[in-house]
Amino acid sequence: MKNIGYNNSVAIIGANSNVGAQFAMAIAKAYRLLLIDSDEMQTSLLATKIKHKTQLPSAVEVVSCSKDASWEADIIILASPTHTQPSIAKKIAEVTTCKTILQISNANDESVSIQNILPYSHVIKVIINHSTAMVQGEDADALQLALQLLSFTHWTLIEKSKLT
């Protein structure tokens, strides 16, 4: 299989979360990963697991600063707890212009859109409910990129075109 998109890098903020780790494992062979989480020891273990699985030691890097990782990444997956997402969005705002950001939340969580905090970014909201991912966003290209990323996962995808 051709490594599509390997020229792109993906920062996963909240890499140790269940969804963050699932995403990392699912897309590791196709994208260079920058993993960020507060527990760097656990994040390093995840990186080691991914390197072993992919046999690509340069495919994953543990980064301690979400702003640095977001500056370096082409795509950002915000898989941290939903109550932390607005503050993280404020930290990374100046380095995310024109970038696609997947804002991940669980169906049971009350999530506030971060689009107003990141007005020059393409925010795609992804709501996970068991084995289903509802994907919604306003930018067609960013939405297609999100769907491409999500196609590597085991979730059934439901697309909505507009953020609400």
Structure summarized in a few sentences:
By secondary structure, the chain is of the alpha/beta class. The protein contains five helices and eight strands, in the order E-H-E-H-E-H-E-H-E-E-E-H-E. It has one domain (9-160): NAD(P)-binding Rossmann-like Domain (Rossmann fold).
Give a written overview of the molecule.
- The protein has 164 residues and is an alpha/beta fold.
- It has helices at 18-27, 40-54, 66-72, 85-92, 140-150, and strands at 9-13, 32-36, 60-62, 75-78, 100-106, 122-129, 132-137, 156-160.
- It has a single domain (9-160), classed as NAD(P)-binding Rossmann-like Domain (Rossmann fold), CATH 3.40.50.
- Helix 1 links the parallel strand 1 (9-13) and strand 2 (32-36).
- The radius of gyration is 14 Å and the shape is globular.
- The chain starts with 8 loop residues before the first strand and ends with a strand.
**For this structure, what is the CATH homologous superfamily?**
NAD(P)-binding Rossmann-like Domain
Radius of gyration: 14 Å
Biggest sheet layout: 8 strands, mixed
| CATH level-3 fold name | Rossmann fold
Task: Report the span from N to C terminus.
Answer: 37 Å
The total beta strand count reads 8
Percentage of residues in DSSP E strands:
25-35%
The poorly predicted ranges are 1-5
The domain tally reads: 1
Discrete helix count: 5
Estimate the global geometry from the Cα principal axes. globular
Q: How helical, in percent, are the residues?
A: 25-40%
